[in-house]
Amino acid sequence: MTTNPIQLFDTESSTFTYILAAPGDTDAVIIDPVARHWERDLRHLERLGLKLRLVLETHAHADHVTSAGKLCEMTGALAAVPGGCGIAPAELQLQDGEVLRFGPGEEIRVLHTPGHTAGSMSYAWRRNVFTGDALLIDGCGRTDFQGGSAQALYDSVTGKLFTLPDDTRVWPGHDYQGQSVSTIGWEKRHNARLAGRSRADFARLMDQLDLPRPKLIDVAVPANRNLGLPHGG
């Protein structure tokens, strides 16, 4: 049986947060929580009788502040972050290929998927993959700041994410079109930015996007490198 994650949404930044829990056990993991929703997220855990063990970040976000530090303080969970994102206070600095364990036999595989940022990670669990901003539904994350690279993102998606089984469910870090979940097979065939495109074509496309600078980047990135906690806190 493939267990679906609990998918929560922040309308201001269009960010998805995910809670993972295995059937018949109380251990839980949360991915990419948002600061303004820490109470909401704790209520979800409480209602379901879950104990938070790990707080995962896919990267140091530029468009919202994380509640990772707050949730860890409140629950005793450990923060697990990409080792290349400069999030120094986190207990677990993850590297490509590591396996995180929670509950009785649950495993999350760590996949280094740089390109949106240099350190970005995706997380694979039970035929689900949580792709952060590397792979979005019918799109992908931008590549023009925080050590981003269109060539690296193309390699991450085609060389790592698209090698997962076609029926793997894709749970993105954001959505701006009212979509919530896709599959690897669908994205390989239909993704508007990636399907049927060469590495050079993709790089040209990304270089021409000319996107506005994220409004919160100067606040969010430093805050997120401290797990969303006040410096010195």
TrEMBL record:
Among its keywords, does the record have Cell division? no
| Gene Ontology MF annotations | hydrolase activity; metal ion binding; sulfur dioxygenase activity
Domain Metallo-beta-lactamase as annotated: residue spans = 14-174
Q: Sorted alphabetically, which keywords does the UniProt record give?
A: Hydrolase, Metal-binding
Per the record, the domain of life is Bacteria
Q: Does the keyword Metal-binding apply?
A: yes
Q: Name one Pfam family in it.
A: Lactamase_B
Q: List this protein's GO terms for biological process.
A: glutathione metabolic process; hydrogen sulfide metabolic process
Database matches in InterPro entries: Metallo-B-lactamas (IPR001279), Mito_Persulfide_Diox (IPR051682), POD-like_MBL-fold (IPR044528), RibonucZ/Hydroxyglut_hydro (IPR036866)
Identification of the protein by name: MBL fold metallo-hydrolase
- Source species, please? Telluria aromaticivorans
